[in-house]
Amino acid sequence: MSIPRKDKIYVLLQFLVFIGWLFDVESLKFQISENLHSLGFLAAAIGFLLILVALVQIGSKISPFPSPPENARLKTTGAFAFARHPIYSGVLFIVFGAALWLGSGFKLLISLLLYLIFFLKSRYEERRLLEKFSEYAEYRNDTGRFFPKFKGRI
């Protein structure tokens, strides 16, 4: 199976944004309280753990490309019961948390750009998953994209 061109474009954009995140602009640095500093570190640590759990669940089926491989199975348990894209969620926790921890406005802006790319990439990926798995529509309605859906009344 050849990799669709759109898949390659999304992965390239994602890679370029990751590279951009490694840089910083001194004039966009900011000071934060110790509590926010700790919160940023905690968010990054949670993201790292979320990625590890999702990777263990996916196993050797992991791919950076959004189109599901022919032999793919729909995963709806574990980390995937809370978010349809837990690896993207984990990455977002890491980049936003680390940007806050480091007090970097530039990294926060790049993190927002990454969120946008993940949103668009996941929309495309979900169209492909709907084509492959009839049960994906119900799973999508019951499960949040990057964060859990809160159902019921508070």
TrEMBL record:
The lineage of its organism: Bacteria, Pseudomonadati, Bacteroidota, Flavobacteriia, Flavobacteriales. InterPro entries: Metal_cation-efflux_comp, Phopholipid_MeTrfase. Gene3D superfamilies: 1.20.120.1630. The keyword ATP-binding does not apply. This is Isoprenylcysteine carboxylmethyltransferase family protein. PANTHER family: BLL3993 PROTEIN. The chain crosses the membrane at residues 37-58, 108-124. Keywords: Membrane, Transmembrane, Transmembrane helix. It is a multi-pass membrane protein. It is found in: Endomembrane system.
